[in-house]
């Protein structure tokens, strides 16, 4: 099954003028540079500037500082855009074929175990590289800044610098930080700064979570990813709700990867927990039913089926969903058609999901 899918993706990629390569620059082979036609997306006669908020990249110099390889796809899973020396044409060809006008790049945190000096250097290198890259390609790329969230005060400073001096509109963070939940009060300085700056905080899971859970996710099927990633997002968002973090910082703009994991699919249960077992809950925390908080968050569209997208829109509002492709990981080939094919959505919903909401959130211009 997996082999068939890989073969399909390779054939599709070749047809689009792409060649799949391993994740490392050292593995890269000379590529074909034929560009497929850029797909333009039109809804009801109007050209839509589409925005993908979930697009990965890596900065090799930062990984060199950490003495590790970037968190990356394995061979056959697509080329990772590195910001130094990587052919940009391949990435643009993939975006063109998918109908993505603007990709909002982010870097999956792999520095949460670094000491303060090293973490500061890594973030500086990454954010400077991202800012320079996006400034040079502003018509096709934007980015979430990186922050050293294991040092919340430093992360707050980095976010402020990124937002006020470097042109970023937000930051990307993990679903937990070296074993600590995002709702831990030690992160309040970061959340406070993010709220004050109007930053969009993109939460992307890191999959493994706590050791006992990681143990249970071993075995065939890559459960650490297919279940572990959405589970980590579900846990992170639930703590932010139930620990009162979102009451303390009500202006936070949180955007969760992978459709918010499992939370939006079953969030009504969260409304009933404290009603059913009131002695297990702190009175007045959270202030509102949990279903109200998911309506304030944003979620990417990476839920695979029209029914999944319809349900997500029903739970969180179509105006709180944005495209997420997870590129270069080949989870989806047709992120735009996914939205267009969801019959339950109105044209206005589709415009919002395809780009309108992300452009407004991130202050991106219409093409
Ligand atoms: Zn991802």
Strand and helix map with partners:
Blueprint: H1 2-15, E1 41-43, E2 46-48, E3 51-56, H2 60-66, H3 88-98, E4 102-106, H4 116-136, E5 141-143, H5 152-165, E6 170-174, E7 176-177, E8 180-181, H6 188-197, E9 200-204, H7 211-216, H8 223-226, H9 228-242, H10 245-248, E10 253-256, H11 268-276, H12 290-294, E11 298-300, H13 306-316, E12 321-322, H14 335-340, H15 347-362
Parallel strand pairs: 3-4, 4-5, 6-9, 9-10, 10-11, 11-12
Antiparallel strand pairs: 1-2, 7-8
Helix pairs in contact: 2-4, 5-6
Bound molecules: zinc ion.
Give a written overview of the molecule.
The protein is of the alpha/beta class. 42% of the residues lie in helices and 12% in strands. The strands form four sheets. It has a five-stranded parallel beta sheet. A three-stranded parallel beta sheet has the order 3-4-5. A two-stranded antiparallel ribbon has the order 1-2. Strand 7 (176-177) and strand 8 (180-181) form a beta hairpin. The longest helix is centred in the middle third of the chain and has 21 residues, at 116-136. Mean pLDDT is 87; it is low at 1-33 and 73-79. It binds zinc ion.
Characterize this entry briefly.
This protein is α/β, with parallel strands linked by helices.
Jot down its keywords.
five-stranded parallel beta sheet; disordered N terminus; binds zinc ion; three-stranded parallel beta sheet; alpha/beta; globular; 367 residues
Please list the strands of the largest sheet in the order they lie side by side: 6-9-10-11-12
Q: What's the overall average pLDDT, rounded?
A: 87
The 3D shape can be described as globular
Radius of gyration from the CA trace?
A: 20 Å
Strand element count: 12
Ends distance = 39 Å
Beta-strand content estimate: 5-15%
Uncertain regions spanning at least 5 consecutive residues: 1-33, 73-79
Largest sheet: 5 strands, parallel
Order of helices and strands: HEEEHHEHEHEEEHEHHHHEHHEHEHH
Q: What compounds are bound to the protein? A: zinc ion
Bin the helical content: 40-55%
Number of helices: 15
Which class do the helix and strand fractions yield?
alpha/beta
């Amino acid at each position: 099954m997996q082999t068939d899918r890989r073969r399909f993706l390779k054939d599709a990629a070749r047809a689009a003028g792409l060649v799949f390569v391993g994740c490392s620059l050292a593995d890269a082979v000379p590529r074909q540079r034929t560009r497929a036609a850029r797909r333009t997306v039109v809804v009801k006669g109007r050209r839509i500037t589409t925005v993908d908020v979930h697009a990965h990249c890596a900065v090799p110099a930062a990984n060199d500082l950490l003495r590790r390889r970037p968190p990356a796809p394995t061979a056959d899973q697509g080329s990772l855009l590195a910001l130094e020396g990587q052919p940009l044409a391949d990435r643009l060809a993939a975006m063109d074929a998918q109908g993505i006008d603007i990709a909002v790049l982010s870097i999956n945190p792999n520095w949460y175990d670094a000491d303060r000096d090293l973490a500061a250097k890594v973030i500086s290198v990454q954010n400077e590289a991202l800012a320079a890259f996006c400034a040079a390609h502003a018509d096709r790329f934007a980015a979430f800044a990186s922050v050293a969230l294991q040092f919340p005060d430093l992360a707050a400073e980095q976010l402020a610098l990124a937002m006020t001096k470097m042109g970023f509109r937000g930051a990307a963070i993990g679903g937990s930080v070296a074993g600590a939940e995002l709702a831990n009060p030690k992160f309040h300085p970061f959340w406070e700064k993010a709220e004050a700056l109007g930053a969009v905080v993109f939460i992307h899971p890191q999959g493994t979570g706590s050791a006992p859970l990681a143990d249970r996710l071993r075995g065939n099927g890559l459960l650490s990813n297919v279940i572990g990633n959405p589970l980590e997002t579900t846990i992170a968002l639930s703590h932010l709700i139930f620990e009162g973090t979102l009451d303390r910082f009500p202006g936070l703009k949180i955007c969760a990867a992978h459709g918010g994991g499992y939370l939006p699919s079953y969030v009504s249960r969260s409304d009933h927990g404290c009603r059913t077992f009131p002695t297990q809950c702190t009175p007045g925390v959270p202030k509102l039913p949990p279903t109200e908080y998911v309506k304030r968050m944003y979620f990417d569209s990476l839920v695979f089926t029209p029914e999944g997208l319809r349900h997500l829109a029903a739970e969180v509002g179509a105006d709180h969903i944005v495209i997420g492709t997870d590129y270069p990981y080949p989870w989806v080939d047709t992120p735009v058609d996914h939205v267009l094919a969801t019959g339950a959505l109105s044209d206005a919903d589709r415009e919002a999901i395809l780009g309108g909401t992300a452009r407004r959130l991130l202050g991106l211009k219409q093409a």
